[in-house]
Design a protein that fits this description.
single chain; 205 residues; mainly alpha
């Protein structure tokens, strides 16, 4: 065998002429496309089921499903910190409460439509999270968990303080009326809240 033929043979079996092993990358595009297609089909099936459910269930069950989706949206924020960065936080309920009270106060005391409360509540939570996050950046592990737990424990007590009771409702909280479906849609209040929450969840996901 000539030197040229030997070189070609080395390359065919994944070795360089110097004897170094080299891995040969083979594209896995078909498998990746198949996996993506399967996930897309599963998503569409689940979405179709989610769209049909409110028409087949009682209003109370629809409301419970809406609450479940609200908690799922809250968990998405926690996943950014814990799932992707590995930092254990116990304080997300505090920002959840601040956002909820912001929206409720704007609706109950200011007469603002619930749609417009979403960006305002998001901005306020972002500012508070940024201010709390500046010193928290120096912490990690159990120390971050303790600091965020303190925030979660203190927030309900702050919201129940007497100077804020007029706005927050104290220990009773704020009772707001469920909004009617817009544009004359043939949906009751629970069904509309369900679909509205589903749309928000899909956008954030």
């Amino acid at each position: 065998m000539s030197a040229h033929e030997e070189t070609v043979a080395h390359h065919d079996i994944g070795e360089s002429p110097e004897g170094e092993n080299r891995s040969i990358a083979r594209p896995a595009a078909p498998a990746a496309k198949a996996g993506a297609g399967a996930r897309r089909i599963i998503f569409l099936v689940l979405l179709a089921i989610a769209l049909v459910l409110p028409a087949t269930l009682k209003n109370f069950v629809v409301f419970q499903l809406t609450q479940t989706m609200v908690y799922a949206i809250a968990i998405l924020g926690l996943n950014l910190l814990t799932g992707f960065n590995g930092q254990f936080s116990l304080g997300h309920s505090a920002f959840y409460a601040v956002g909820a009270y912001t929206a409720a106060i704007m609706m109950e005391h200011m007469g603002v439509s619930y749609v417009w409360t979403l960006p305002v509540a998001g901005v306020i939570c972002f500012v508070l999270g940024f201010l709390f996050g500046l010193p928290a950046l120096r912490l990690e592990g159990v120390y971050l968990a303790l600091a965020t737990f303190a925030l979660a424990a203190a927030t309900p007590q702050i919201l129940k303080l007497s100077p804020l009771e007029h706005w927050t409702g104290g220990v009773q909280g704020i009772v707001i009326t469920k909004p009617d479906a817009p544009f004359g849609l043939p949906l009751n209040q629970d069904q509309w809240l369900y679909y509205f929450t589903l749309i928000v969840g899909i956008i954030l996901y």
